[in-house]
UniProtKB/TrEMBL annotation:
Residues 67-297 form the Aromatic amino acid beta-eliminating lyase/threonine aldolase domain. Belongs to the threonine aldolase family. This is Low specificity L-threonine aldolase. The keyword Ion transport does not apply. It comes from Streptomyces aureus. Its cofactor is pyridoxal 5'-phosphate. Keywords: Pyridoxal phosphate.
Amino acid sequence: MTESEERENPAADDATKARERRAAAVRGAERILGAHGLDATIGERLTALTEAAWSVADPGRTGDLYGDGIVADLEERVAGLLGTEAAAYFPTGTMAQQVALRCWAGRTGNPTVALHPMAHPERHERGAFSALSGLRTVHPTTEPRLPDADEVRDFAEPFGALMLELPLRDAGYVLPTWDELVAVTEAARERDAVVHFDGARLWECTTHFGRSLAEIADLADSVYVSFYKTLGGLSGAALAGPRSFIEEAKTWRHRYGGQLFQQFPAVLSALVGLERELPRVPDYVAHARVVAEALREGFAEAGVPWVRVHPEVPHTHEFQVWLPYASKRLDEASVLQAEQTRTSLFRRWWEQGPPGLSVTEVTVSARGLEWTADDVRAAVADFVALIPPETAAQNA
């Protein structure tokens, strides 16, 4: 950004400086509750990938070419984990789901997709379903949870596909019970609709449901999974389902520009994630419940007048924390804590609902396993002490 552009857009400049300060504070922290791949430098990530890659691949092997070789190996691995006939690797989940729902629309003859208004395609993809694929979306419910069987069964108009995001991230990483999930998929099929799982974070769902990945995926006609969410890969996704459906999806993948020349770095990171992170996810989920309770206790001990941990018992290893303060004050406290105490408890905060009510997302992963409940409560006390006094500027 040039000097003239900075003068013309001071808000963007301030946002950039705040992001850089936050990133530096987290990188300098000795203890982090929820570490993220973006915390590392390029050199650190390349070194880590190089060191881990040879545990999942032969270094003497030639690279992939337009989706063969190690890419095909990853597709076979995912299909095996999900119990499907086949899988296709995609550079992004947005593309994978565009293709999946487009293919189902052609097969069912109905371009209408029933999904939650908080689902990723509705919130974060700039209307891509309608703009690119000619799909139309409808919402069986607007409640902050997935639709139930009655809402699907009694919906007032036909739809060709029911798309369920597992877990529903923007509602708090929430999941239905296993019986509710079975019932809602059965209700969709009573209406001659197919079921597609947006399983970007499907890896996190086995503990809550008490079922294997294959048992969960078996409820759907197709499933999308991400390799950078939960597993810590560089990027990439997979679409899994019947073999004929996946072959059709690969055709559309090419048309959408997803048949890349070579993809082995991202694919290697996905294989490493499946090998190293996936077996640890149940531990992350279990410890997230310890952390959630300790956070609630810590805020009560610190005298915060109101706090909400949602869900009260996390369904996955990710959940929300709500506090009655402006987001700017909480962002500042989060950065100050990392800078002054070398402990990073929270990241970004957003204001949702009434002014002065803010929410953050907490992820408990490998480094979070080191935190005891006492550690969490102590960090909360430090965080609350660093919340700046209320001012007009901070609430603006």
